[in-house]
Amino acid sequence: MRTYLRFTPEEFAAISLACRPLHLNGKPLPLFKHFLVESLRMTSPELAGRVALFRPHEVGILHDDLRARQGHRPARRTRLTRGERAAVSRASSAYLLPDGFPHAFQEFLLQRFRDSFPRLARKVARLTEREVEDLYRGVRSPGRP
To answer: By the 8 A CB rule, do 40 and 14 touch?
Structure first.
């Protein structure tokens, strides 16, 4: 059984960035793995594929290391600029699902901005479920950009 994992500095930076919104001390490992794979899928598909193949003990190694580095700090809130929020608002006009599907809305935005606005796609990938819900309500409410 391996007791370590190998990542390039760029891969580890991508993983750390994807995990920034998480409170790692309370996330069950299967949910952590799923979140990480989904977060990396659009921006680092090869890395997401590697993580998807991790066995439970490997997920535990990564989780424990990230948790120690995180220092049990609260999750950082991802903030969108006014222009980014306007781009999300325009894109959401083509989104047909109602409230209550934050992962589907987040995936829709990732697909929409992956090539045309990669910086925004990376920000959207880091949003917590609550932030995605708030963003959706904000752009779908009348009178708000």
So the answer is: yes
Q: What distance in Å separates the CA atoms of residue 58 and residue 103, rounded to the nearest whole number?
A: 25
8-state DSSP, 131: H
Tens of pLDDT, residue by residue, the chain (145 residues): 566 789 998 898 889 888 877 767 665 677 888 889 988 988 889 999 999 999 988 988 888 888 877 765 545 567 888 889 888 888 887 777 666 677 788 888 888 898 888 888 888 887 877 788 888 888 877 554 4
CA 117 to chain centre: 16
For residues 106 and 39, give the distance between their C-alpha atoms in angstroms, rounded to a whole number: 10
Do 114 and 94 belong to one domain? Answer: yes
Calpha distance 104→126 (Å, rounded): 14
Residue 75: DSSP 8-state: P
Would 1 be classed as within a structural domain?
no
The token pair that represents 51 in the structure block: 């993580």
Q: Which amino acid is at 1?
A: M
Pairwise CA distance, residues 122 & 118, whole Å? 6
Instruction: Indicate the helix (H) or strand (E) that contains 93.
Output: none
Q: Is residue 4 in a domain? A: no
Q: Which domain holds residue 109?
A: 82-140
